[in-house]
Structures are given as structure tokens and as C-alpha cells.
């Protein structure tokens, strides 16, 4: 039993490496919003008062929020967002959850990624704390495994 436990690789302490096509956006300390929801439509059938039909219609993907301490890689985010002024190109993103020893624990590929919002640090001299930034991205689904 103990040998089985040693083979299990869990994500106890991880960081998130984000790549946008061939551009490395850097390492993030938190990642929120990876998920998928099946949107259900309800239909009431005439004469059937026992239940309401629930039919799956489409998939919906929440925005993904990535947060990290402010650093040199902030320039890469600023370049990506400022390029939106001249029109945008949807890109593919890869998010890798990595353990502290550099091993990839999990990986997600996101289709048609578009930046939605960037939030910079709140600056206050009387409240010293780690300065963080957050990038929020929209996507249109996950890449199939192995691509």
C-alpha cells in the first residue's frame, strides 16, 4: 500500500506556468476559474405534470484569473493587452501546474484565448505588502488531450 502512495503525484504546493502560443507569460501563484458548465434548457411537456424535461444545450466556460507577485514578466502582459488596440488575434494558451521540484502535475490547453481584464497592484505607503497583478482571460474550450 505504501508504494502506491509514493507513486501518486499530488498538487500540494504548485505554481502555474502560462504560455500563449509561443510566448511565455511567466509563472503565476494562483489560478482560478478552470472549469466547464453544461447549460441546461428546460421544456415542459403538455399533459405531463410529473416532471420537466432538462436538456443539455451547450458548454459554457468561466473566465480564468491568474495572479502573481509583480515582476519583470508584467511587461509581457502589458504588451499583450496593449496589442488589443490594433485588433486582436485569438490564441491558444497552455497552463501547467508545476510542483516545487519543477515536475508538471497537470496541464490545460485553452482555445481562442482573449485577455479580458488586467488588475495591477494597490499602492499604499502605509500598508506594506506584496504587490500583485491579476490577468483575467476568456476562452472557448479546452484542447483535446495530447495536442
Automatic annotation (TrEMBL):
Any coiled-coil regions, as ranges: none
PANTHER family xref list: CONSERVED HYPOTHETICAL PHAGE TAIL PROTEIN
Protein name: Phage tail protein
Source species: Jatrophihabitans cynanchi
